[in-house]
Amino acid sequence: MITRNRKLSISLTFILCLSAAFSGCSVQDQMGGDEVPMVLSGATMGTYYRVSVSTLPLNSNAQELKAKVEAILDEVNQQMSTYLSNSELSLFNSSESIDWFSVSEDTAKVISKGIDIYNLSSGAFDITIGPLVNLWGFGPLGRRDNLPTDTEIAAKMTTIGSDNLKVRLSPPALKKSFSNLNVDLSAIAKGFAVDRLSEMLNSLGTTAFLVDIGGEMRAKGTRRGSNSVWRIGIESPVVASQQIQKVVELDNSSIATSGDYRNYFEVDKVRYSHEIDPRTGRPISHRLASVTVVDASCMDADGWATALLILGTDEGYALANQKDLAAFFVIKTEEGFEEKMTVRFRNLIKKE
Asked: What is the tens place of the pLDDT at every residue in 130-145?
């Protein structure tokens, strides 16, 4: 019997005391003066976005800033969505050509980073994994009513592999080795969008902000009314509730978490996670429940969090230390959860 948990796994981090810090705000309140707190929010990329600004940019107001935010999000969606049939990525995926296919600089940049992490993780992070994600019922095609067969998995395995994808940055273009190769940037595009929004806020002279897209975040400066930097709570991987596992202070840095406990289905009491290992074609089955990565780039943090989760505790922890990543691992045990962290991450923990 199949049972499903339809909660998204994307909202794995949340802001401590955000509602207390910004409660009572409205669009009207956000219109006057550059010291007024503001939160802009909405839907994007199948999840939410929230931009918290401690100080309004000079000569700006809420409506103008929200328009700029949503213009960037619409642009990234039009470039990288697999749900929009006319997006750059969808057009590339549907093309049967194996010649160079022109794309935007942004799309080429994100795919280049995806290929880099693919190579550095020995194939654990793979932006061509879409056919397997769909096969297991976690993609745009929706859920299926039974488990994939070994034959179906083996067939899809022949259609993936980022080593079959080439990217050119100037002029920006993509090229695939065979016509049915598909690219899915869902494990890295949200992080890139966070970076884009942060760069826009920086260009406007914004001195303090927190950008959040589905739990992938980037922060700068201090919270309004406080001399302290933004404090981010990393969620404990408990399905039934939201509990804080660890607190991190962010300043001019980004955070992303990947976990196996919010988006899954069960068959005969066996859980099948949405996190698919491209090396086996099957959902991960190890005890690593979540990985959080802090980095200057949210795109990098986003991609690496997924890669390390797929690798599992031993391989992931070893690689994180080798690459000097600030990474935090939460591992399931019989008694609860166990933590492991790299030296770089340990320095970020909020002191009790």
From this structure: 999 999 888 777 777 7
Rounded (5°) CA angle 335-340-346: 135
- Is 306 labelled a binding residue? yes
Q: Is 145 labelled a binding residue? A: no
Burial bucket for residue 140 (CB in 10 Å: 0-12, 13-18, 19+): middle
**Per the domain annotation, does 219 fall within a domain?**
no
- Does 302 appear as a known binding residue? yes
Residue 60 is assigned to a structural domain of this protein: no
pTM > 0.85: yes
- End-to-end Cα separation, the chain, in angstroms: 46
> What letter does residue 229 receive in the DSSP assignment?
B
Number of domains in the chain: 1
Tell me the pLDDT tens digit for each residue of 256-288: 999 876 665 666 666 777 889 999 999 988 889
Q: What is the DSSP letter of 347?
A: T
Note whether 316 and 170 are within 8 A (CB).
Answer: no
